[in-house]
Design a protein that fits this description.
The complex is a heterodimer of chains A (about 325) and B (about 170). Chain A contains 13 helices and 2 strands; from the N terminus they run αααββαααααααααα. Chain A has about 325 residues and is mostly helical. In chain A, strands 1-2 form a two-stranded antiparallel ribbon. The longest helix of chain A is centred in the N-terminal third of the chain and has 36 residues. Chain B is mainly alpha-helical and about 170 residues long. In chain B, helix 1 runs antiparallel to helix 2. Classes of the chains: A mainly alpha (about 325), B mainly alpha (about 170). Chains A and B meet through helix 4, helix 5 and helix 6 of A and helix 2 and helix 3 of B.
Amino acid sequence: MDLALLLEWAIKSIILIFIVIGGFAYVTLFERRALARIQVRIGPNRAGPWGILQPMADGIKLIFKEELIPDRADKIVFVLAPVLTVVPALILLAVIPFGTSISLFGRTISLSLAGDVNVGVLYIMAIASIAVYGIALAGWSSNNKYALMGGLRATAQMISYELVLALSFIGPILLANSMSLNKIVEAQNPIWYIIFQPIGFLLFFIAAIAEINRSPFDMPEAEQELTAGYHAEYSGMKFALFFMAEYGKMIVVSFIAATLFLGGYLGPFVDRFTWLGPIYLGIKVVVLIFLMVWIRATLPRIRYDRLMALGWKVLLPVALANVVITAMLIVLVGGF
Amino acid sequence: MTQELILFFILAAVAIVTAISMLVSKNSIYAVMFLVLNFVTVAVLYLLLNAAFIAMVQVTVYAGAIMVLFLFVIMLLGAEKAEKGKDLPWQGPLAILLGGALVLELGYIIFSQQRGLLPGIEAVSESFGSPASIGDVLFNRYLVPFEVTSILLLVAMVGAIILTRDEREEKS
């Protein structure tokens, strides 16, 4: 294990974390501006041109807010929970390939941290299943019934939709014959998997929105019923961490969807100019994030029992049927 | 090799400490979290042994799904503070007795067979823990046990559904 390799990994990790953190700041602005446009408003436009400095202003404001810890709260868990919520969002990008490889300073550097790992898709599942703890513990440790209800709802919802999420991964895995995300992207070279797996993509998108607690599935933080759900008692930077986790997960989920179904870094001329890869991937991610904002602006929140019924009685059977049909077609037609 | 050895000892220490903390902690939420940490540490140990697939399954199934259900039930019942066990007074001494017997047996086996605990085992290939090779073994060599296990799990699932349904009908 040479030093240059360690340095390469460290630099890549830092870049990936910066993508999520920087992306988080600007996705909040993007969402507020886009939502405002949809609702025929203007949105934040005072801090800098087009409101570009708004995220900084928000950050500074949150840093100077008082940090409140409820008297009867479980202090250790209360402080730990926001951290546990952010970490999964930060480490998921490790298996996403941003391109093939470039040569820099006489070394060939592949544009991903661990895109070749043969359990890439399973890694995503493993981290997704860990991601519940932060929210559940935040709800429990606050010693507040609204927060506890939010935490319980989040837990139930995330375990239910995880099944659909995992089943929607199986389509691309079967088609590409591999669990490495690099191979899945390479296998999509002429035709993206959204063409072969339209239902799979739809299932993934719905389940992912539920998994990251975005509207219309944001039951854990439904204002009208639970004040603010699991983060009702959080303030200052701890609240900012929850905020960051939500938007970070939005970004990460868009990256995963783009990689599994929309051809990842593939695009015209990408085999000649490798640096186009990250740009294509970025464009696809922005389109998906806009789609999520659009959905939030359009659809009302659905009732909690309907949410569970949708997950277990509609999405899960469809996902199972999708897996069976995909597998049968691959055996009959002999793969694509 | 030394790197792996150092890593192993650190991980082993973490695993043992988290396991003991799980047993000792009075608050059951803390116990759950220590057990999650323990499972994740064991998953990293699997990674050290080149068994990436098992490691990921360990995190997904044990650290993720099962422990989340534990947490869910504890939070739902509000059973964080464990009560002192008054019933079953014979349980403590019996546990010590049986645990001691197990340690003695283990010690006997280790010291009586110093030449190698598992004779006839050779170094495994690098790819033995990959998803492809596990699937190959599972669906070719052990197909019947695999199918039997899946039927068993299906029966358990149906049983769980029937049990909850009966309860609901009694209430109404």
